[in-house]
Amino acid sequence: MIIKRISVVLLTALVITMCYANFFATPINNVSRDLHDNSVSDSASNIEPVKQKSVSIDRINPSVIAVVAKMSFSEAIDLSDCVVIGEYVSSHETDWGGIDYEFRVKDTLRGNVPEEIIHVVSFKGIAYVEGESYTYELGGDFYENGREYILVLGRNDSLFLEYPQFATLCGIVIPIEDIGKSNMYGEKLSDVADNSLEEIKSLIREARLAKQKQKWYTDATDYSTIVNESRFVMKVRITGLSSEGITANSNIYLFEPIEVLKGDLPINEINKDYYSIALMKGSVLVGKSYIVMVNWSDGEDSYMLMQSSLRSVVDTGDETTVNEIYQLC
After folding, report:
1. Structural contact between residues 128 and 64, judged by C-beta atoms closer than 8 angstroms
2. Residue 248 contacts by C-beta under 8 Å, 6 or more apart in sequence?
3. How many angstroms separate the CA atoms of 320 and 7, rounded?
4. I need a surface site. Which of 22, 41, 138, 230 has the fewest CB within 10 A?
5. pTM for the whole thing?
6. Which residue has the higher pLDDT, 219 or 275?
């Protein structure tokens, strides 16, 4: 249970729903020793190879900020949400210390990318490749203005983000005009470096279909739809701030369920301290009570609940709205 709790704190404190698991990286500087415990999250066993080799992350490189899963190019394609050819437009530093690369989508080779302009975000620092002895740079100057690149991406749509965010998988950089300089994990990507553009496109298009992600929030503004599309509707008391969101407009809060109006929330006296809830910044105050409409962040095994719409937090003092929600439940 402690491991599950730490895993949730790790994930959500960084990006809330950016879901670093999808980008195959575990940030190091946020690996917490939470709950007065010295355990490290095994949200993937991707930190274990370091322990097995008795190598300290700090001794590898003090600027290492992530452990990245080792996989082949084909595996990265299979696990990606989308692959596009993008023209590099610009980049800027984010207010959370990362970098936001802007690309104009020229062609979609895999998945569904309706946006004309996409934002590919990254932390800045050094990544350590799981089970290997080398590292590579995150958030560097990898792209040239006006040049086109094949981008192998994870996608994150979130209620807590201004726009969809993407992240490259495994540091893959494939410059269309100089495919021989393609790299992955900072090393030459031999799987594609000697191929033509059409051969690479064919390889990508032959990969298995991208898994359709289940959306955990609704854009609806009427409470009839919001209640219907929320897994749980509860009256809760906010008992504390667990962690502040770094890359998204949300915080993680601890809560005490007062009354469950919809759904069968599996909380009891033994496990109640392991559950937390992601809510928009400024939407609640610690110690106050609210009606919240929420969904699991990542299926039934999750310990994290997420605000299901922009109107899913209602102060219990708003009697008119509270009464409407009670009737809908």
Report:
1. yes
2. 15, 16, 17, 18, 158, 160, 161
3. 38
4. 22
5. 0.74
6. 219
Both tokens of residue 193? 């470096």
User: Which range marks the domain in which residue 99 is found?
Assistant: 2-205
For residue 63, how many other CB atoms are within 10 A of its CB? 14
Report how far residue 171's alpha carbon sits from residue 77's, in angstroms, rounded to the nearest whole number: 12
Q: What is the pLDDT of residue 33?
A: 25
Look at residue 9 and tell me whether its pLDDT is greater than 60: no
Q: Residue 107: its pLDDT value, please? A: 96
pLDDT of the residue at 102: 97
Assess whether 159 and 238 both reside in one domain: no
pLDDT (0 to 100) of residue 168: 93
Residues 284 and 178 in one domain: no
183 and 264 in a single domain? The answer is no
Contact (Cβ atoms closer than 8 angstroms) between residue 83 and residue 61:
no
Contact by Cβ (8 Å): 262, 227:
yes
User: Of 137, 51, 22, whose CA–CA distance to 31 is shortest?
Assistant: 51
46: pLDDT strictly greater than 60:
no
